[in-house]
Design brief:
Blueprint: H1 3-20, H2 25-37, H3 42-55, H4 58-71, H5 76-88, H6 92-105, H7 110-122, H8 126-139, H9 144-156, H10 160-173, H11 178-190, H12 194-207, H13 212-220, H14 225-241
Length: 243
């Protein structure tokens, strides 16, 4: 068996360990064995990099993702991953540079566009972030991610009408997008529209009866005079529909 095949076997073993016990030492050791067999096995560096990020071992994570960029200099995903690592350690300038490099390699890479928008928001460039999200929507209007991210941005800035419109765009694409439905409910609470808020939380609970956040949100508005009757009615109807 050749070194590349051995590396693949160790990599697959690492993936199995990772799925059974995420970020385990066994997974780390398997990925390292993969790299001992083939030091250019990029996927092993990627998985190790994410484990190190989650463990807070940022220098090691950066070295892994930087190695992948050297191994795959024409792969946009390599730059997106390195950019994410830089963003995690608050090196936003370096992160933005990597995301733009990914976009230069693939002008239709909406992941890079969304990542750039996030960095622009972190830097306080609200209008630049909005423009970037809209560019991603233009490139792929059928993707939920840019619509959802733009809605969240509007939501954070109390631009509720715009946020509602974008959340509805998300639901036109994917009617079961729970976070969009739940966030709509939260906006309606802030607007004092308790009927629509309860309708949104009900919809979440029909899709996911165990959603604690939706139950808590329903409970939080039950004390409002305008919401109490609606909540009680909804509480009963939800239990009637849950097997």
């Amino acid at each position: 068996m050749g070194k590349r095949d051995q590396a693949f076997q160790w990599f697959e073993k690492g993936c199995r360990y990772d799925s059974l016990e995420p970020d385990s030492d066994k997974a780390v050791e398997a990925y390292r064995e993969s790299l001992a067999c083939d030091e250019e096995y990029a996927d092993a560096y990627v998985n190790l990099g994410f484990i190190f990020l989650r463990r807070g071992r940022y220098d090691e994570a950066l070295r892994c993702f930087e190695k992948v960029v050297k191994l795959e200099p024409t792969n946009p995903e390599a730059y997106n991953n390195l950019g994410y690592a830089y963003e995690t350690v608050e090196r936003t300038g370096s992160a933005k540079m990597m995301y733009r490099h990914a976009l230069a390699l693939d002008s239709g890479n909406i992941e890079a566009m969304i990542n750039i928008a996030h960095v622009l928001e972190l830097e306080g460039d609200y209008h630049g972030a909005v423009s970037q999200f809209k560019s991603a929507i233009t490139v792929n209007p059928g993707a939920t991610a840019p619509h959802f991210c733009l809605a969240v941005l509007y939501d954070r800035h109390d631009m509720f009408d715009e946020a509602i419109e974008e959340y509805h765009h998300v639901l036109e694409i994917d009617g079961g997008y729970l976070k969009a439905i739940f966030n709509l409910g939260n906006i309606y609470v802030q607007l004092g529209d308790y009927d629509r808020a309860v309708e949104s939380y009900e919809r979440v609970l029909r899709l996911d009866p165990d959603c604690v956040d939706a139950w808590n949100s329903l409970g939080s508005i039950s004390d409002e005079p305008r919401a109490r009757a609606v909540f009680q009615r909804s509480f009963s109807s939800i239990f009637n529909t849950i097997p």
